[in-house]
Structure formats: structure tokens, C-alpha cells
Write a structure and sequence with these properties.
By secondary structure, the chain is mainly alpha-helical. It is built from 10 helices and no strands. Helix 3 runs antiparallel to helix 4, helix 3 crosses helix 8 and helix 9 packs antiparallel against helix 10.
Length: 265
């Protein structure tokens, strides 16, 4: 397929949807659904209206976008380290998984927003509560996919490595992690999506800055174009972060025959 064909295949439907939205919104003039042109104008004013020497660093970016990105990436990284480490341990020791399975099933079944009052009591309003909410939600898909990936290590590879008395640290580095990597990356992508969602939720409840805070403020002030601009920004961030992680996965696992695997949530 040519470059033009690939571009059309990927972006034709979104462009048509935006065009239809523009036409319908212009015809109906519904204040709750402003046309994309008004949303784009509001977005340009919010994010690209800084001084000439600070283009792309308007006050909105510095005060709200960058802190939100820091919360998403910080919470996701903490969840990734904890989920992969615990997943490696539980995946290699099925007996341990049998002991903790009821606890994990109970904790995983609790919606992270339901714990925000608890996190508010423990950490108060601020970065601690927001990170705790993000980590709690993003942790589970990473953990479960890591456990599943570790348990799916080919038995022949494992028997061959152990028969040569391979040190445990080398077993993890050269046998377990490469075999489980596709499912681990699947869990990381899903966890990143949860982290973005919970970043917005936590900022709606207890924050003094951030995208979610600005979204709620715009809704309360009935600035609907600004509200939709923040919603579009969240979608763009989700697409960009997922594309970046997918590019890392393709670069790291292009050689792996089992990289297209199911993802556990």
C-alpha cells in the first residue's frame, strides 16, 4: 500500500467525522456541542498564546499540562515497577499465587475512584492522593499480564536453561523476561490508558491544577468550547502516549514471534 493509501486508511474516518460535526454543529447551533473550529480556536488560545520567546510554553501548558503529564507518567512508572516485580515473583511460584489470589481478586474488584476518599484521608489533597489513585488502577493489568507472561514461558527453554545450571539472575534476564515481554508490554499499554483516565478523575476531585481541574472549571463557568478543548487534549495525549509506547515495543520486540498476544485486564 502506498503512503497516501496508508494515510487515507488511518485518517479518512476521523476527518469525515470532524467535517460532519462541523456541518451539524453549525446548522443546529447547539451551545453544548460547539463546532470543531470553535474548539480549535479555544485550544490555540489556551496552549499557543504565550510570549514569542516561549511558544508552546503558554501558562496553560506550564501550570496544567506539564503537571498532569508528570502525574500520569510518575504513577504509571511506579505501577510498572511494582507490577512487573511482583508479577515475576508470583509467576514463577504458583503456590504463592494460590495464597494471594483471593486478596488480589478482592482488591482488583474495587474501582479506583471509590478509594479516592480513603486516599484523601491518608495523603490529603495533592500529589500523594493523585499518584495513589493512578498507581492503584494501573497496577492490576501490569501485574496480571506479567504473571500470565511468566507462566507462558516455553517449557523446553526453561528445561534447557536449568539443565545447564544457569544462574537465577540470568534465567530472569535471558529466559523469562524475553519470553514474557509481549504480554508485559500489553499490560503496560493497558496500564497507561488507566493511568490517563485516573489522572483526570483524581484532578476532578482533589487538585488545584491539571487538565482535569481545568476541565471541571470550564464546565462550571459554562465555557463549553474550552471544556471540549480539554477533552480533545486528553484524547490526543492518550493517542500520543500509546503510539510512543507502541513504537518502543516494536523496536524492542520486532524479533519476537509471539508479540501479538492477548491482553489481560
Amino acid at each position: 500500500m502506498t503512503l497516501v493509501g496508508r494515510f487515507a486508511q488511518r485518517w479518512l474516518v476521523p476527518v469525515v467525522c470532524v467535517a460532519v460535526w462541523q456541518v451539524v454543529a453549525g446548522a443546529t447551533r447547539n451551545p453544548f456541542f460547539p463546532p470543531p473550529s470553535a474548539i480549535l480556536a479555544s485550544a490555540a488560545r489556551l496552549w499557543f498564546s504565550g510570549p514569542a520567546d516561549r511558544l508552546f510554553l503558554a501558562d496553560e501548558v506550564q501550570r496544567h499540562l506539564l503537571p498532569s503529564l508528570g502525574r500520569v507518567l510518575g504513577g504509571w512508572l511506579i505501577a510498572a515497577v511494582a507490577g512487573i516485580a511482583l508479577g515475576l515473583a508470583l509467576g514463577r511460584f504458583p503456590t504463592g499465587m494460590d495464597y494471594v489470589r483471593p486478596v488480589l481478586a478482592l482488591a482488583r474488584g474495587i474501582p479506583p475512584p471509590a478509594l479516592i476518599p480513603v486516599f484523601l484521608v491518608i495523603f490529603h489533597i495533592g500529589i500523594g492522593m493523585q499518584l495513589a489513585t493512578i498507581v492503584f488502577g494501573a497496577f492490576w493489568p501490569i501485574l496480571l499480564n506479567t504473571v500470565d507472561g511468566v507462566r507462558s514461558v516455553d517449557a523446553t527453554q526453561w528445561d534447557t536453561a536449568t539443565s545447564f545450571r544457569t544462574p537465577r539472575r540470568h534465567l530472569i534476564t535471558f529466559v523469562i523476561l524475553p519470553s514474557a515481554a509481549p504480554k508485559i508490554f500489553g499490560g503496560l499499554r493497558l496500564g497507561l490508558s488507566f493511568a490517563l483516565i485516573l489522572m483526570v478523575v483524581s484532578e476532578l476531585v482533589g487538585a488545584v491544577n491539571g487538565i482535569g481541574y481545568q476541565l471541571l472549571l470550564a464546565q462550571r463557568q459554562f465555557e463549553l468550547a474550552t471544556m471540549w478543548a480539554h477533552i480533545v487534549l486528553i484524547g490526543v495525549l492518550g493517542y500520543a502516549l500509546n503510539s510512543l509506547l507502541l513504537a518502543v515495543e516494536n523496536a524492542a520486540l520486532g524479533w519476537h514471534p509471539g508479540r501479538h498476544t492477548r491482553v489481560l485486564a
